[in-house]
């Protein structure tokens, strides 16, 4: 009989979002009239920018003509899109990134997990706690961890706490790490890293010959012009980092699917004999073997993000969500809650009142306010005692949710 990848058996059975669904279902069965406001999921709510829709409509028409038809495209993505990205996202910010170093994909979720294909199985891995679950689960699936303990911490991974106690600056690994996952602006805490903070990581990675996997899916939400949008804004990062970016959150492409990964040409890793090998070459080989590129129509839609109309529309979208975040922050603060994040990211990370657990506070908001958040403990043991609220919703929903929470008993 066929054998399965038994590492999957070690995954903690898709525990966070199914459990949230289960509690919502139980609640709505009892209170079918309740009008729930979901500030839980990390999905955008507002329509696609007109510039992207127009570009895709034009591309669809072109596909209906012999002259404008496009079959298989380059696996790495069309040059015009990679050129636009290199220019707007990197060179304009003073980063030395070439169009050739950019690989277009159908999502950062895919890329952050697929990257393991080109990395060895014996790397010492560090992740923050709390963490975007994909980084951890993809390593579990690849057999890079031991089983999880009661708190959900997998054996063999080094967890670096990201909490109010350390001002959401994770400590450097206590034992050497070869592979480090960082996400800033951070999901779930909504906090951001300064240039000095990223420099500290790059310096560590260079002195330990480690690789940083830097997830910048939320860079568009940064408001402070002093904060870096890319790890490549930091000295030395080209020697030690890969960066993941996505059109999902800035341009609302969660259902359209387009992202990209930057792999510097000079970046290397070692074979088991100790020879240095180009990661760019490995990733290029991996993508051209296992991936056939993102649809032409979608890449035209992504390119339109960089048109002047597209830039203005994306700025409006991001501003809209960040106004929501500001409303959530202000309202919760005025209720005496400790809130973090939400200034350069669409997530607000709320300390639960009166030492309630993450799930107790989740249940209270569900029962009393009919508001759905995400329990911080679901993102890692150090997320216990926090709840994540997302700014991805309509204005009326956010305002109503805050008014309802204000009526809860938070003592
Ligand atoms: C939403 C999100 C992404 C984007 O994933 P896509 O697959 O591109 O939609 C990447 N990283 C984090 C941490 C995210 O929250």
Short description:
This protein is an alpha/beta fold and 411 residues long. The protein has eleven helices and 15 strands. Homodimer.
Describe this structure in words.
35% of the residues lie in helices and 14% in strands. By secondary structure, it is of the alpha/beta class. It folds into two domains: 12-47 and 309-406, Aspartate Aminotransferase, domain 1, CATH 3.90.1150; 52-305, Aspartate Aminotransferase, domain 2. A seven-stranded mixed sheet has the order 2-8-7-6-5-3-4, with helices on both faces. Strand 5 (179-183), helix 6 and strand 6 form a beta-alpha-beta unit. It is globular and about 60 Å long. The mean pLDDT is 97. Bound molecules: pyridoxal-5'-phosphate. Residues 42, 107-109, 132, 183, 187, 215, 217, 246, 248-249, 254, 259 line the site of pyridoxal-5'-phosphate (PLP).
What general form does the structure show? globular
* Average pLDDT rating: 97
* Helix content bin: 25-40%
CATH class of the largest domain reads Alpha Beta
Overall tally of domains = 2
CATH topology tier name of the largest domain: Aspartate Aminotransferase, domain 2
- Derived from helix and strand composition plus strand pairing, the structural class reads alpha/beta
Radius of gyration: 22 Å
- Low-confidence segments, given as residue ranges, are none
Strand order of the largest sheet: 2-8-7-6-5-3-4
Mind telling me the CATH superfamily name of the largest domain? Type I PLP-dependent aspartate aminotransferase-like (Major domain)
The ligands bound in this entry are: pyridoxal-5'-phosphate
